[in-house]
Amino acid sequence: xxxxxxxxxxxxxxxxxxSLRKQGWEGEILIIGEEAYIPYQxxxxxxxxxxxxxxxxxxxxxxxxxxKQHDINFMxxxxxxKLNPVNNTxxxxxxxxxxxxxxALCTGARARKIPLPGSELAGVFYLRTLDDVKxxxxxxxxxxxxxxxxxxxxxxxxxxxxxxxGVNVTVLEVQDRVLARVTxxxxxxxxxxxxxxxxxxxxTNTAVSHIEGDVQVKAVSCKNGExxxxxxxxxxxxxxxxxxxxxxxxxxxxxxxVVDEFARTSVSNIFAAGDCTNHPNALLSGSLRNQSNNRLxxxxxxxxxxxxxxxxxxICGQSLPYASYPWFWxxxxxxxxxxxxxxQGFDQVLIRGDHKHSRSFxxxxxxxxxxxxxDCINRPKEFLxxxxxxxxxxxxxxIKLVDESIDPKTFLQ
Amino acid sequence: xxxxxxxxxxxxxxxxxxxxxxxxxxxxxxxxxxGILAECGGSCSCATCHCYxxxxxxxxxxxxxxxxxxxxxxxxxxxxxxxxxxQIEVTEELDGLVVRLPESQY
Lengths: 413, 106
Fold this sequence. Notes:
The structure holds two protein chains of two kinds.
Chain A: E1 3-7, H1 11-22, E2 28-32, H2 56-59, H3 64-68, E3 72-75, E4 80-84, E5 89-92, E6 97-99, E7 102-105, E8 109-111, E9 124-126, H4 130-138, E10 145-149, H5 153-164, E11 168-172, H6 185-198, E12 201-203, E13 208-213, E14 217-222, E15 227-229, E16 232-235, E17 239-241, H7 244-248, E18 257-258, E19 270-272, E20 277-280, E21 295-296, H8 301-315, E22 327-332, E23 335-341, E24 348-353, E25 361-367, E26 370-377, H9 380-392, H10 398-401
Parallel strand pairs in A: 1-2, 1-7, 2-3, 7-19, 9-16, 10-11, 10-16, 11-12, 18-20
Antiparallel strand pairs in A: 4-5, 5-6, 8-17, 13-14, 14-15, 20-21, 22-23, 23-26, 24-25, 25-26
Chain B: E1 3-7, E2 13-17, H1 24-30, E3 50-53, H2 58-61, H3 66-73, E4 82-84, E5 98-100
Parallel strand pairs in B: 1-5
Antiparallel strand pairs in B: 1-2, 3-4, 3-5
């Protein structure tokens, strides 16, 4: 019997396995995960799960029984040490060798570590896995002082969740504004205002020099001389794609495991999907960060799911080229942020609504008059309209985009 | 355990047990029912878990909340009995609920 092995047990794997069955794969399916858990949803880790609004069982993507009923098997708490593409085998860290006919790398990404003195002290956490959050939760008390390093989505979502639990939160951001990597200054300004209104202390232009403490963390010291008491430190400074297995096995790697639009790596029976991939997206213009082509690496659940379906199609001898407009979401306080598209390369930002005084508005990002993306805060209608504007290639007169008297649904006509 | 009856656009039917306290969306995801995508995992952020509640069941299931209603307006081909299945909590009362799935969530 033919065998597919999936390395990684996250969102991509959770979509890939059932999609394989749907597409007619009748052979074996084995998912190897290095965590102790079957696939669970990562986004709630810094939101509802951190805040205690969801249980571990509630964040599983689906229960184990569901996989069993479709003959999908797991090996958990297992690390793959090496790939041997030449003889279609892989070696686990315990030395055992497994063979496969088709291999899917869904290895995702890991939290980028902060190489600072004191970062190994007890009480300093990263936030990527369920075990990370469980460890953090053990140290949460109302009135505790938490310092969050990094003012990106993880940092801000965690700040919102902890603040709600009565923790005193300070966010340290090295750039001059929060969410600098991903949004326009107007949106950064908005998030800083709301967090401040909610009682979180946001310090921008603040770089950490070292973390103080003996065995436990006591404080965080900054390069500008400031010092913040800390019972707990959470670091959210980005992720690094898990490409090592692929790289060491000689697969093409460049800011992610390189795949084509069919999710194929440089080896014909090895595929990859999700946060670990560098993939082409024909829909995006050539304005992606520092690249002149249309390749990118995305940190996004919908991307992982879509690419997984493409892998399933490829493995089953069908063709489902991946090309979707990215979208993301972030929940903080009563703010529902939904983002359609990728804003990189924008030359114009238009605001619909009042970002300075309200909690509901849209930031439209344009380039050369063409819509690239929309950050929608408590504007679900505009978000869904934006998704359609992008997928259907509709250009809207900028005057209409900012005119609140016009129903956004009419933009689609 | 309540049984939910899903009918895909192509006619494929599934009768599955879904636990009280879970959601109609989760029942579809657990059973690998394709017609529900559930991209945001049930946080009412994506409108890809759209379903049509059978007319006979709509009063038991109830109306959508306001954010959900806004999202539904923009879902693919919304109908009067449209709901986002992640917002339909399964109760004993919904044993036998019939939902139809749209042709596409996009």
